[in-house]
Every structure is written in C-alpha cells, then in structure tokens.
Write a structure and sequence with these properties.
Structural class: alpha+beta
Number of domains: 2
Number of helices: 4
InterPro entries: Cell_div_ZapA-like, Cell_div_ZapA-like_sf
Number of strands: 2
Low-confidence stretches: 68-77
Protein name: Cell division protein ZapA
GO biological process, one term: cell division
Shape: globular
Oligomer: single chain
Keywords: Cell cycle, Cell division
Helix content: 55-70%
Organism: Chitinophaga niastensis
C-alpha cells in the first residue's frame, strides 16, 4: 500500500485536508498557490461576482489549460489533481446549486 501523507491546502481562505504522496507535496503546494493567485486576479478583474464564482472561474481555467504558468504540462506533472479538482467542482456546484 502506498504511503500517503495528510496536508492542508487552502482555496480562497478555506482549508481542505487531502492525502498525497510525499513526493507530490511541493507540486501540489505550487499549483494551489497559482490557483489562489488566479482567484485574486479574477476578483480584481470582475468586481461584483461572488466568492464561489471566482473559485469556479479559477479552477475551470486551470483545469482546462494544459500548460501551467511555469510551462510544465499539467497532465504529465499532476495527474492526481484531476480527482481533487472534480471533488472541488462538486463542492462548488453544491454551494451554487
């Protein structure tokens, strides 16, 4: 059985506990930093939206672009994030529902 470590990630000031492989921690934290920066960018660009809209916009943008701002292909560097993004999308859809 694979060793998974628990870490807390923050998405727009909300903390989520996930379990990942130890070697994936740095990449997960980098990606979550990018997602949070994108949320802030959307807040600046689209005044009047609600917090869930900013989160959804950032995660949709991030999930649909095959290359990160660092130039690495997401599909290659972080395939495990697909499941995490799907769970976050489900949470967002329930909140907006």
């Amino acid at each position: 059985m694979e060793l998974l470590i628990p870490i807390n990630i923050v998405v727009s000031d909300r903390s989520y506990r996930i379990k990942i492989k130890p070697e994936e921690e740095e990449e997960v934290r980098r990606i979550m930093k990018e997602v949070n920066e994108k949320i802030v960018d959307f807040k600046t660009s689209y005044a009047g939206k609600d917090q869930q809209d900013y989160i959804a916009m950032a995660l949709i943008m991030y999930a649909t672009h095959p290359v990160t701002s660092g130039g690495k292909a997401q599909a290659i560097t972080a395939p495990f994030l697909q499941e995490k993004l799907e769970k976050l999308e489900e949470i967002i859809n329930q909140a907006l529902g």
